[in-house]
Design a protein that fits this description.
The protein has two helices and 20 strands. By secondary structure, it is of the alpha+beta class. Strands 7, 8, 9, 10, 11, 15 and 18 form a seven-stranded antiparallel beta sheet that branches. The protein has a three-stranded antiparallel beta sheet with strand order 12-13-14, with no helix packed on it. Strands 1-4 form a two-stranded antiparallel ribbon. α1 runs antiparallel to α2. The two termini are about 20 Å apart.
């Protein structure tokens, strides 16, 4: 009977992790360039279940296999492109394709799909609260005026024709599944070498989050119901064992 505790407790923990993932997705539904996370779980190592006699336990009859607990498998990131929304904002950019912008952060160069940039106090193009945006030459892009224009590949120049500013660096990776999502929401390379790409960059646009609110609400309700059911059955198990030890044990 006690193995039911393993099944139910692991189910509660698994559904709690799923709810955390769904909650994080829903919180970031308005974050430009955010990529939704998908939690998956798996069963622990299976064990062989057999039937044996009450007294003679030498001969057993195999009944099949059973897993005792549910264990976390992997947290996937869905890199499907979100919808591109025209904002008309001077420093908004959106990548049309599979590339990432490079950001110089305190932890080194990290990558993002969020192209909602601003200028810092020194006139450098930056992603708020993260760091400066890098160009194709690997150096931060300094823009001394907001009177700019950009072509379809991220080449920024002054609108008055006084010269070029720089070109936004857009990088791709051999396998996006190996990218490591950091606590900041930006991505590390996962040991891969980024490649400078020639993906189209739309000026005055941002890429919206690819989170589907209806889908996330459905996942949330499913996980909540599974968690509540497991908790209720776990309470029943506890009551049965309590009676077995306090009442049946005295008979």
């Amino acid at each position: 009977m006690t193995k039911g505790f393993y099944n139910l407790t692991s189910g509660i923990l698994s559904q709690s992790r799923r709810l955390d993932t769904v909650g994080n997705n829903m919180v970031n539904i308005t974050t430009p360039g955010y990529k939704q996370e998908i939690y998956t779980d798996t069963t622990f190592d299976e064990v062989l279940i057999s039937r044996i006699g009450n007294k003679d336990k030498q001969d057993s009859t195999p009944l099949g296999q059973e897993s005792y607990i549910l264990a976390p498998s992997e947290l996937y990131v869905d890199y499907q492109q979100g919808t591109l929304e025209e904002t008309g904002q001077t420093f908004d950019f959106a990548i049309q394709g599979n590339g990432f912008f490079a950001i110089q952060t305190a932890n080194g160069v990290e990558y993002t799909r969020n192209g909602r940039f601003v200028l810092d106090e020194e006139g450098y193009l930056c992603l708020p609260e993260h760091g400066r945006v890098l160009g194709t030459d690997g150096a931060p892009i300094q823009v001394m005026s907001d009177n700019i224009r950009a072509d379809n590949y991220g080449q920024i120049s002054y609108a008055d024709g006084s010269g070029a500013v720089g070109r936004l660096g857009v990088f791709t990776f051999p396998d996006t599944a190996q990218l490591v999502k950091n606590e900041s929401g930006l991505f590390g390379t996962g040991g891969q070498q980024p490649t400078l790409a020639n993906e189209p960059v739309l000026w005055g646009y941002v890429e919206n989050s690819n989170v589907d609110m209806i889908q996330e609400m459905s996942r949330m309700m499913t996980a909540q119901r599974a968690l509540q059911s497991a908790a209720q059955v776990l309470g029943i198990y506890d009551e049965i064992l309590t009676k077995a030890t306090t009442e049946v044990g005295r008979m």
